[in-house]
Amino acid sequence: MSYETLEERLAWVREAIAQVQVAQGVRQAVRVVAVTKAHGGAAVAAAWSAGITDVGENRIQEALAKQEEKRALPMRWHLIGHLQTNKAKLVPGRFAMVHSLDSARVAEAVSAAAERAGARVPALLQVNIGGEAQKSGCEPAAASALVEALHHLVGIELLGLMTMAPFTDDERVQRRVFGALRQLRDRLATPARPLPELSMGMSGDFRAAVAEGATLLRLGTVLFGERPT
User: What is the DSSP letter of 140?
Assistant: First the structure.
């Protein structure tokens, strides 16, 4: 697959982000995490050439294979998909951030692996704001206790929250979900635990996410086109 138009697509995305921020009067810094799920290592190389330094993967084994293939590129790798407890030992030292911690059990496993490696893992708590059964994430009512628990894990550096909106073109629904995550973050943040990061927004709804305060956008299709089958 050719990624010759990636620079143009990225420029369009950045212009769209800027337009939303001007229209909504928001100023937060926004990082684009290029999601290369199902795309080969060539997509990672193309992202780097286009000026993208953050790459996201849903599956840990696919991420590790690409990290090995493209080890010469100093990318920041993000694990954005569901993490199983038995894969926690593979995280420390390999990922700049884990977006998808959704239970104390998984977080404790990651923290223990990080302690053994003499490291800390930057991480986000995934919250299922929309209450969709098919999506991972803790319930909003459980977020306060989990944030408190994760904050005290030695091997975890808790930086914020993550969510996914329902698959809909209705921007009102998108903004309601993303706004609810921002409001939840604002309630849970303290001077000792500021929770600056909000990972929300994908190719179909990133404008709504930016309007509601997203700092990390997980973008795949809008950058690389449809995933190969």
Answer: G
Average model confidence (pLDDT) for the chain?
A: 96
Beta strand ranges found along 93-147 (DSSP E): 97-101, 121-126
Task: Give the predicted TM-score (pTM) of the model.
Answer: 0.96
CB 220 within 8 A of CB 202: yes
Does residue 185 contact residue 198 with C-beta atoms inside 8 Å? Answer: yes
C-alpha distance from residue 132 to each of 3, 79, 127, 137 (Å) = 33, 21, 11, 9
Overall residue count recorded for the chain in this entry: 229
Residues 161-178 pLDDT 10s:
999 999 999 999 999 999
Give domain 6-21+37-223's CATH architecture. Alpha-Beta Barrel (3.20)
Tokens of 196: 């600056």
C-alpha 9 chain-centroid distance = 20
